[in-house]
Amino acid sequence: MENTAPNNNPLERRLNLSVPVDALKSATDERLKRMSRNVKMPGFRPGKVPFSIVRQQHGAEAYGEALNEALGSAFSAAVNGQKLNVAGYPRIEPRAETENSETQLEFSAIFEVYPEFTPGDLSVAEIERPTLEVTAAEVDKTVTILRQQRVRYAPVERGAAQEDRVVIDFLGKKDGEPFQGGQATDYPFVLGKKTMLPDFEAAVEGLKAGESKTFNLTFPEDYAKEMAGQTVEFEITVKQVMAPTLPEIDAEFARSMGVQDGDVSKMRAEIEGNLKREVKKRIDAKVKDQVMDALLTANPIPVPNALVEMEVQRLIQEARQNLEARGIKRNLPIQPEWFTDRAKRRVTLGLIFAEVVKAEQLQAKPEQVKALVEEAAETYEDPSEVVKWYYANPDNLANVEAVATENNVVNWVLARARVTDKAVVFEDLMGQQAVS
Fold this sequence. Notes:
By secondary structure, the protein is an alpha+beta fold. It has 12 helices and 10 strands. It folds into 3 domains: 12-113, Alpha-Beta Plaits (2-Layer Sandwich); 126-135 and 267-430, Trigger factor, C-terminal domain (Trigger factor, domain 2, Orthogonal Bundle), CATH 1.10.3120; 151-245, Chitinase A, domain 3 (Roll), CATH 3.10.50. A hairpin with a 2-residue loop joins strand 6 and strand 7 (177-190).
């Protein structure tokens, strides 16, 4: 007899399965007969081992295989008959003895099913879409950043100033005694980069190479516990002061940026194109995050624990691979609960996405996939070869199809939600400090 009974978990189901004893015995004997044809044992020719010995040696194995096959068939028939969409794998438990226990083996299959739902209303969802036009000003800011990344320092005889690179020796004392972490030799840093405390940098500023200074410094209250709020004395000696020199925006600089002929205008055009792609990418990512939140809010569905656990294990494996890639070979303890919330979010979104795609026919179209492939190929020297590579590799093309489908879902949500555009600052979007 079969039945479906939800437990505290709304997605959990239970099916009662029966396996006829006679059928199980026959299936076991049939397996043993097949095995006996190839069983090898000292003193007997292959295939000539007495059946009683084969049963004695391999009976438990054959019985287990026959039972697993019978339960698998019974479970498949039951879930297909009731049209259940099973998530994960069932847990099989023997049932207590029943009146038919002599002729039937009774089991219970406990499992979860996928949630059934209709995509929720998104008309009340509010999404703020950043807007930013890339102009010559943004190109100039980027060129400045690129120049700063290639800064060179040259020794000067004047006192240290903001943006200078200094090399110093320092010794910190508390109550006349050196304290741990309070001293260094040939220590380099750039004034104004906030790598040192403000009062420390202020004491260095104005000193020339070869000059020394002793001053008191009070650590902030939110500093390291041992020194927070403590006043100490520092002795510093400036050994070198170097002023920054930025590269000129010329042919040499353009060549360092990959423009072989040194054409500065071509370099700026390439920077502008890269900026536009990066700005679009970041805006799309911010919009996508809001779309995901909107879908989760509109669809508060239960998710199968089995799928969450599988995703947790996948994330753990991914974390271990990342650690190994960084040279950390030790088997560091990783707790599953660190990934539970993230795994649940990803599983939930996956289920919602699948339902929206199916209900709204949002599968990726060939022309959408082609457009994404060509866009990705634009940044390479030979775009046509990149396009061929994508279409020759089913896995890579499948990844592009997934992105196209995701874009369709995002656009579908945006067409239904309350979307407002908001201009953003270049530095805020790019995560950069303002350049001078």
